[in-house]
């Protein structure tokens, strides 16, 4: 859902498969504080799970900068 949403918003993103990428998994746990997916990092703004409203606000704020 997150990937589809980001595409709809014309936001470029990098995907990491934390089931096979140990370093990405460790980074995700550090940022989210738990082993949960998805975790989306908008330049330091972390969103855990699919929170459409929070993501829209962050994207809007980033486009203003």
What does this structure look like?
This protein has 65 residues and is an alpha+beta fold. Strands 1-2 form a two-stranded antiparallel ribbon. The termini are far apart. The protein has one domain: 3-Layer(aba) Sandwich (Glutaredoxin).
Tell me the radius of gyration. 12 Å
List low-confidence stretches.
none
By CATH, the topology is Glutaredoxin
CATH class term: Alpha Beta
How many helices? The count is 3
List keywords for this structure.
65 residues, alpha+beta, Glutaredoxin, two-stranded antiparallel sheet, 3 helices, 48% helix, globular
Topology:
Layout: H1 2-8, H2 22-32, E1 39-42, E2 45-48, H3 52-64
Brief synopsis:
This protein is an alpha+beta fold and 65 residues long. The protein has helices at 2-8, 22-32, 52-64, and strands at 39-42, 45-48.
